[in-house]
Amino acid sequence: MSRFTILLNGPVALTGRLRKQAEGTRALAADGGMMHAASLGLHVELWVGDFDSTSDSLGARYGDTPRQQFPAAKNKTDGELAADEAIRRGATSLLLVGSFGGQIDHALGHLMLGVRLARRGVPTILTSGEEEAHPLLPGTTRILLPHGSRLSIIALSDLEGLTLGGTHWALHDAAIDLGSTSTISNVATGPVEILLRSGYGMAIAYPVAGGP
User: Fold this and answer.
1) Shortest CA distance to 66 belongs to which of 88, 80, 49?
2) pLDDT-derived band of residue 212, with 50, 70 and 90 as boundaries?
3) 154 CB-near residues (< 8 Å, 6+ apart)
């Protein structure tokens, strides 16, 4: 298995959980996301993007890092370009760090990218350190969360056969319509297991500090 971290330009909280998730991974940076490399102790093997959000000081600090530069007028975000490159380099799972905050179009785009990557067989977690997104596909998704962590299920289509275990409010074989808010703000009581018969969604988690 080859786990990769993709560093994006969004805000990051350097939690113990995030450090553990990134530990031992190979790393690529997308444009200004390089600013998170040192604090996470990651060696970036490739720096991807149009570099419009890279400061002169950041560029000088990592001047020896190999770059793959693209024009500003392109049809993919720097984050998607970096994810594509990680897969070309053999990534079997991805951790997208700095996925939230900033422009809502980029944040939503990367959430949907996470679903597309998962559908391609590349498990993906999107995180800011304090907030995580786990794509939900038909089948079983397991998330290790500390007791008391808040968890929401966002339906990205109509969901059929949704079953939740390890949560304060359990569900069994439920149908959730696209746009419903009925599955927002649940609470994890231990490891969470999510079963889904059909549809696509996103589990948004807010892990409490001090947990695994």
Assistant:
1) 49
2) low
3) 183, 184, 201, 202, 203, 204
Residues contacting residue 90 through CB under 8 Å, at least 6 positions apart: 2
Under 8 Å between Cβ of 31 and 98:
no
Work out the end-to-end distance of the chain between its first and last CA atoms, rounded to an integer number of angstroms. 21
The pTM of the full predicted model, rounded to 2 decimals, is 0.93
Given a cut of 70, whether residue 211 has pLDDT beyond it is no
Q: What are the residues whose beta carbons fall under 8 Å from the beta carbon of 63, sequence distance 6 or more?
A: none
Q: Which residue has the higher pLDDT, 28 or 72?
A: 28
Distance CA 73, CA 52 (A): 11
Determine which of 51-55, 105-109, 140-144, 149-153 has the lowest per-residue pLDDT on average: 51-55
Residue 105 pLDDT grade (very low, low, confident, very high; cuts 50, 70, 90):
confident
User: What single letter denotes the amino acid at residue 47?
Assistant: W
